[in-house]
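Checklist before submission:
- one chain only
- standard amino acids only
- sequence pasted in full

Submission:
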Amino acid sequence: MLYNLLDNIDFSIEIAATVVGYIAVLVIIGGLIHGLVILVKHLLNPKQFPFTVVRLVVGQYLLLGLEFLIAKDILQSVLQPTISELTQLGILVLIRIVLNFFLEFDLVGKHKFLNNLFRK
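Returned file contents:
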C-alpha cells in the first residue's frame, strides 16, 4: 500500500517536472515569436520601435523560461537524489542563476536607457 502511494507520488512529480519543462519551452518560443512580431513591425515602420525593445522583450521571456527550467530541475532532483544528480543539479542551477543575473542586469540597464531616451 505504502509502496503504491510512493510510486504514485514519484509519477506525479515526474509528470509535474515534464509539464514545467514544456511550459518553459513554450514561454521561450512565445517570447521569440513576440520579439519577431515586434521586429517585423520595426522593419515596416523603422521609427516605431528601436531594436532594443526587441531585445528587452525576448530577454524577459528568456528569464521567465530559465526560471521554469530551474523549477523542473529541482523537481527532477527529488526523484533521483544521488550525489551525482545533486551535484549536476547544483552546477546547472548555478549556471542558470549566473545567466539570469547577467541577462537581468543587461535588461535593467537597457530599460533605464530607454526610459531616459523617451523622457527627453
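Reviewer check: Residues 2-119 form one domain.
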